[in-house]
Design brief:
- By secondary structure, this protein is of the alpha/beta class.
- The protein has one domain: HUPs (Rossmann fold), CATH 3.40.50.620.
- The protein has 7 helices and 5 strands; from the N terminus they run E-H-E-H-E-H-H-E-H-E-H-H.
- Strands 3-2-1-4-5 form a 5-stranded parallel beta sheet, sandwiched between helices.
- Helix 1 packs across helix 6 and helix 6 crosses helix 7.
């Protein structure tokens, strides 16, 4: 009997690699994506569909979470807050969406319980991320503990973070090695047609490609 993993796939490079690793580890993939009012929602959704197809997902969920816009407090969901373009910020940046990964993991746990999944994959990166508190390995482990405490006795979920200790350059290289369709991934916080190249996420991505000695296949303004 094939084992099942729920993969949270944003449409970005990290989650695409995380899902590819799950597929390579022999899991049947249930792909999960969230539309939460982010600036590049349509582009991310289009990328999610391509990435889900590339890992032969048996089922896909596209879940709308409009309340994130109501809460605001992030440059990704509140159009009144500018996305910073002057360089990678110190501390927790204004692009942090309050408790986003906690909410995503809670919903993913419900989907995993429905499918009797053993694993839940999330592409969090601790060392080379933008300083988001909900990307820390210690936090994700606590969430795993809470999820298993609050689900059926037979539900025993392991939250896998295959990229958590990697640098962006290593993610680029591993993605290329495993055949992740990087041309179908999106990292830009600001724009859906051409990537801006100057937001935190674009800078981290471009630096990763540069350090890996590779060319990014997506188009920049």
């Amino acid at each position: 009997m094939k084992k099942t993993a729920v993969c949270i796939i944003s449409g970005g490079m990290d989650s695409a690699l995380s899902a590819k690793i799950a597929e390579r580890e022999g899991y049947e993939i249930v792909a999960l994506h969230f539309n939460y009012g982010q600036r590049t929602e349509e582009k991310e959704l289009a990328c999610f569909r391509k990435v889900a197809a590339s890992v032969n997902a048996s089922e896909s969920y596209e879940i709308d979470l409009p309340f994130f816009e109501q809460i605001g407090a992030s440059a990704l969901t509140d159009k009144n807050i500018e996305v910073p373009t002057t360089g990678i910020e110190e501390g927790v940046p204004v692009t942090y969406v309050p408790f986003r990964n906690g909410i995503f993991l809670s919903i993913a746990a419900a989907v995993a319980e429905k499918h009797g999944a053993e694993a839940l994959y999330i592409g969090v990166v601790e060392e080379d991320s933008s300083g988001y508190p909900d990307c820390r390995e210690s936090y994700i482990k606590k969430m795993q503990e809470a999820i298993n405490f609050g689900t059926k006795e037979e539900t025993r979920l392991e939250i896998k973070m295959p990229l958590v200790t990697l640098k962006k350059s290593q993610i680029v290289q591993k993605s290329l090695d495993l055949g992740v369709p990087l041309k179908d991934t999106w990292s830009c916080y600001k724009s859906e047609d051409l990537a801006c190249g100057v937001c935190d996420s674009c800078r981290l991505r471009l630096r990763g490609f540069e350090q890996a000695g590779e060319l990014d296949p997506i188009a920049y303004a």
